[in-house]
Specification:
The protein has five helices and four strands, in the order H-E-H-E-H-H-E-E-H. The protein is of the alpha/beta class.
Length: 267
């Protein structure tokens, strides 16, 4: 019985340490949420402006001459996969990888330590991913598409619906799709609309990438805080149950000792 109480004390100490860890990780995630949400909203505004600009540029028939609107036939699809640098965020990374698995023949370009570890690439941080890195990746991808080396470019990211709802999604970036948007503002492009479109695509791809990374990171820290809150509640319940079990075991041991003493005194 004494051995049982000792094991329970060790277990309670272990769970208490875990509870302290989950609290610390939850506080770190909470401290990042506000900044991540601000960055996400700013990136969404920039993404909206990019989409509007590209819509105007692709509305004209001249846009069909652009290599970025061409349907290549190599059979190769490239997908950028955005995951987190850390775990302990519920199903955040798992949902991204599950969606990526539905494209088994695609060439995957991972961003985020977890994605890089999974797909065997060098570490590229999703939290600290810069616009300079985005521009470099965009230049490479746009050059390859221009040369007809692959058919489609997509980005797997995590879409932020609300603090309680995030979901893995894919957004297709290239080739560009023609829209029916009219040039209502009467914008004049120099030297011509096609040239402006071809030069704007690299900025468009880089901007979309940064925007989706910012949104994914906001989802990651939100998911981590929720996961740590849930883990903390479970740890507290487990500690309460262990304390109850420990008190019962201790009371049983005391009762047994008293019984043995009483029995011994009567002999």
């Amino acid at each position: 019985m004494a051995g049982n109480t000792k094991a329970l004390r060790i277990r309670i100490k272990s769970v208490t340490s875990t509870l302290q860890l989950t609290k610390a990780m939850g506080l770190v995630a909470s401290s990042k949420i506000r900044r991540a949400n601000i960055a996400m909203e700013q990136a969404r505004e920039y993404r909206s402006a990019l989409l509007k600009s590209v819509s105007v540029l692709t509305a004209d028939n001249e846009a069909l001459k652009s290599p970025y609107m061409r349907e290549n036939s190599t059979g190769i699809t490239k997908i950028i996969v955005i995951a987190g640098d850390r775990g302990m965020a519920g199903g955040y990374n798992a949902n991204v990888f599950r969606l990526a698995a539905t494209y088994p023949n695609a060439e995957l370009i991972p961003i985020g330590k977890r994605a890089c570890d999974r797909f065997g690439k060098s570490f590229v941080s999703s939290e600290k991913f810069s616009f300079t890195e985005a521009n470099a990746l965009s230049d490479s991808l746009c050059s390859d598409f221009w040369d007809g080396k692959y058919d489609r470019l997509g980005i797997i990211y995590t879409k932020y619906n609300s603090a309680m709802s995030v979901e893995a999604d894919i957004k297709w970036i290239l080739p560009l799709n023609r829209t029916e948007t009219d040039n209502d503002a009467g914008v004049v492009f120099e030297p011509d609309q096609l040239t402006v479109l071809n030069n704007a695509v690299r900025e468009y791809v880089a901007g979309m990438l940064v925007s989706l990374i910012r949104e994914s990171f906001a989802c990651e820290v939100t998911a981590r805080r929720m996961a740590m809150d849930s883990a903390g509640k479970n740890a507290k319940q487990m500690i309460d149950d262990l304390h109850l079990e420990y008190n019962r075991a201790r009371q049983g041991a005391i009762t047994q000792e008293i019984t043995e003493i009483v029995a011994g005194s009567g002999e």
